[in-house]
Design a protein that fits this description.
Layout: H1 2-134, H2 141-158, H3 164-186, H4 193-205, H5 207-223, H6 231-261
Helix pairs in contact: 1-2, 1-3, 1-4, 1-5, 2-3, 3-5, 3-6, 4-5, 5-6
């Protein structure tokens, strides 16, 4: 009987303890759920912050890339423009230099052509005068004088434009042509006409002809039209012969002129 009562008394106590523990367990569950929700919220906020930071970095990177691309494009365009301008200027300079060279070459070619033409005409006019005088024909002095003046005009113009070695040859030829002119002019007063005619013909057909030939070869060689492999040797040989004959002829003419003007 007693045991039954104690058991009955204890049952409400156990039941009440269960009911007492229920609120406590519910509070713990609520607390745990709240803590979990807070942790999830914190994690979400942290993740959101990380995503925000990542967005900011990405935005900054995109902005920097955009600025860099703009600056790079501008700088690259400027460099390309400078390069194009520089190449255009260089090409224009080359074209101007080529044009100046072509004009100078053309002017030199024209000058050389006139020198060659007037030298040949001068020699031919002097030679023909000698032949006509030998045959007893009337010699027109104006023909020879015109040829001489034309040569001297070209020679005078060319002195400031000729290269040194060309000028040297042209100068020697000018002296030889001048001696030939004196040969023709002194023929009528020669004490020995036959000897004078033979000497004059030999001069114009020999050394004088070689001198005009050397002039033509020299001018073509300087222009690059016809390069002689033995130019220097040929030039030295002809110039030496021409200068030697010229000096010898000058002495003979001076001697004959002195005898012609000497009183009887």
């Amino acid at each position: 009987m007693t045991l039954h009562i104690e058991a009955e008394q204890l049952r409400p106590s156990l039941s009440s303890s269960r009911y007492w523990m229920a609120p406590r367990m519910g509070s713990l569950s609520v607390a745990w759920c709240g803590r979990a929700a807070f942790d999830r919220r914190g994690a979400a906020d942290s993740q959101s912050d990380e995503v925000g930071d990542l967005v900011d970095v990405t935005t900054l990177a995109v902005a920097l890339i955009g600025v860099g691309g703009t600056l790079g494009g501008t700088l690259g365009g400027a460099l390309l423009s400078q390069r194009v301008t520089r190449e255009q200027n260089q090409r224009a300079d080359r074209e101007r230099a080529e044009d100046r060279h072509d004009r100078a070459q053309e002017a030199r070619r024209d000058l050389y052509a006139r020198l060659n033409t007037t030298a040949r005409a001068y020699r031919v006019a002097a030679r023909d005068s000698v032949r006509a005088a030998e045959r007893g024909e009337t010699v027109e002095p104006a023909v020879l004088d015109t040829a001489r003046d034309a040569w001297l005009e070209q020679y005078s113009s060319a002195q400031m434009a000729l290269p040194k070695y060309v000028h040297e040859i042209v100068s020697i030829l000018n002296g030889a042509l001048g001696v030939g002119y004196s040969v023709v002019k002194q023929l009528p007063n020669s004490p020995d006409p036959d000897e004078s005619y033979n000497r004059a013909k030999a001069w114009f057909s020999g050394p004088m002809s070689d001198g005009v030939y050397l002039l033509r070869v020299t001018l073509r060689h300087d222009l690059g039209v016809e390069v002689e492999p033995d130019f220097e040797r040929t030039c030295t040989r002809i110039l030496a012969a021409l200068d030697s004959e010229r000096r010898s002829l000058e002495r003979l003419l001076a001697s004959e002129q002195a005898r012609a003007t000497r009183p009887a």
